[in-house]
Design brief:
about 150 residues, alpha+beta, Nuclear Transport Factor 2, Chain: A, four-stranded antiparallel beta sheet, about 25% strand, disordered N terminus
Amino acid sequence: MKLKKWTRVACLGLLMAMLLSGCASEIPIPEDMDEQALLAAGQEVFDLLIADEFETICDRIRDDIVTQVEITPEKIQKQMDVDEQQYGKLKKVKETWTSGVPADEEAKIEEHVIAWFECEYAEQRLVYGFSFDLDLNLIGMSVNRE
């Protein structure tokens, strides 16, 4: 049982690394997926993140993911919070786009989609990725600090 849990955690870590590197951004979302609904779901999470609503974000993550990875509001804050002293204030969301990630049974990664937000801060550009299953349940997130 512990090996299975460890494998899932490792796979989620791999997924987060893929998101951070941007390598998943070239694959389109499934044809039957509503791109505007995906971007709207991402916008909701982004707005919560900017408002420091980490507990609400944690509540929106699919239950099995929260349990498997032991996600807490504190862990979300540590991973996703942007230090205004380092990056400055958020100026604007410069661009949004979507991408898909195919299932990989060997790596235990389910098919999912990502809403991307390229943001311009006073001192730097950041790219946020919000991952959703095909039912638009939040399953992960990342921020690429370039």
